[in-house]
Amino acid sequence: MNLEQLRGFVEVARLGHFTRAAESLHVAQPSLSRQISTLERELGAHLLRRARGHISLTPAGEALLPRAQRILAEVAAIGDEMDELAGLRRGRVRLGAPPTLCVSLVAEAISTFHDSHPGVDLHLTEGGSRMLVDQLAVGDLDIALITASDARPPHGVTLSRVALLEEELVVVTSATNPLVEEGAAVGMERLAGLPLIALDRSYDLRETTDAAFRAAGLAPSPVLEGPEMDAVLRFVERGLGVAVVPAMVLTDRPALRSARLSNPLTRTVSLAHRSDVSPGIAVATMRDVLVRTAAAFADRDPALHSVMETEPRRARMAGRE
Predict the structure, then answer these.
(1) CA-to-CA distance for 82 and 225, rounded, in angstroms?
(2) What is the tens place of the pLDDT at every residue in 66-110?
(3) What's the whole-model pTM score?
(4) Does domain 75-163+268-320 have CATH number 3.40.190.10?
(5) 103, 249 Cβ separation under 8 angstroms
(6) Under a CB-based contact definition with an 8 Å cutoff, are residues 206 and 198 in contact?
(7) Packing angle between helix 105-116 and helix 281-300, nearest 10 degrees?
(8) Dihedral angle, C-alpha 116, 120, 125, 130, nearest 10 °
(9) In degrees rounded to 5, what are phi and psi of residue 226?
(10) Do the beta carbons of residue 63 and residue 13 sit within 8 Å?
């Protein structure tokens, strides 16, 4: 058994197709087929069911897949750490986060990290929590910030999650043409009567908002539905309507004002990584920066509540007491 065989098997399992997997790996399709056949022969078990136009996993293949992914992720982590220790390069961090965090907490954390570690290669992936969990599971990400508690990895993969923040969802309006009073408590019935700009249904917080309306027996009709977060905020700034968004997106948005909901809606921001893969030095450092940045955000915004207390924050709180 060798790493090329495992990479080939994992890619075929991911894509369900030999030709596409070969193209992804930049190898010839017959070579990839031979690798898989050799792997099956060495293990004494069929790993794939070969049907016209589609490949599926046998029970033996399903058992091997999470272990193969873990081995490949560990090999990548070893390479990164050896590069760091040898001084050849300072490592790599592949971070994932929902778009609502990329424009706030993540932007500040990456800026802080890059100032101190400019030689580290940074890769940021935006996406919903479920997509990010899937990418963690297959080793495409090192760490991710996730907000959906029901996002679960595939069978055989375990994630370590650390809750950082509990964040309120707030109603945002234009600062120049406000539709709600800043600091007011807005009920769901009043919110349903306002011109509402709704996020795309792929956003986890859209489902949270819709569920709150359903629980109140309300079914508002948005004036605009489906734009991404940055576009939503720009439409609100121009006075088209209001939106329900996480409190952190107000960072560096002076053209917006916010009001809290009378029955608060919240989401928990957690930091996740594969529990069976040891993070390299660069990844561990980025994780610490994210924890400190989250605590700093909670210190300056009453709509954010720190869940994980860092040592400096505990010391400050003790000093206040």
Answers:
(1) 48
(2) 999 989 888 887 777 676 655 435 678 999 998 888 888 999 999
(3) 0.65
(4) yes
(5) yes
(6) yes
(7) 130
(8) -90
(9) 110, -10
(10) no
